[in-house]
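seq:
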Amino acid sequence: MKKFSPGVWPTVMTVPAVLIMLTLSVWQLNRYNWKVDLVDTLNQQLAEAPVFLPGGVIDPEDWGYRRVMMKGEFLHEKEIHLFSHAVKGRKGFQVITPFVRTDNQGIVLVNRGWVPDTKKDADNRKQGLQTGELVVSGIVKKPWSKGWSFMPDSNEKTNVWLYGEIDRMATYLNMEVAPVFVELDKSDVPGGWPLGGQTRISIPNNHIEYFFTWLGLAVAMSVIFVVFGLNRGRNQES
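struct:
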């Protein structure tokens, strides 16, 4: 039997590295299973019939991506413009409007849908400014903010927003609002704008690829370590 003698430092460096890679591969496999369960849960929620969004305290974690209904009126003079690309990459905005719920159930910021840049000004889509008490339906969306400090900020002065910053929007509007958005379903709107049904669920699940990557690296390093140790042992014998 060939002598196996990899040496102290190669062993000290290789064994922990291989263990870390194996741990990461198992973690990626667990993440894959978690993502599969998450997607199944979201699809199940989206397939259910809408329910009335309750008043009072709303937990964004419990209500995210659930279909809901609400009754109330829009405050069109308070609308917010969220920069967005849609419809074959055209520049535009998603129109977010405070919705005052009936029976003093509070105010919810409603994403009514997308408009092209030419329709950003509400005066250019007066037909779509629906008034009076309405019943609307849509999907609950949790707020989000910019991910990195170097990313640009929303511009309150021009009312152009880049992120779903509900707290900051509430301060801008000087009103207390629910901690979630409701993105309206696609429906027939007078004049055609805003275009509802803008909710997109895109949850990448590349964890199986990462699992095999880390596992492959662990195997490759182990093979190199064994070959190195055998060659070193053979040289010591000769």
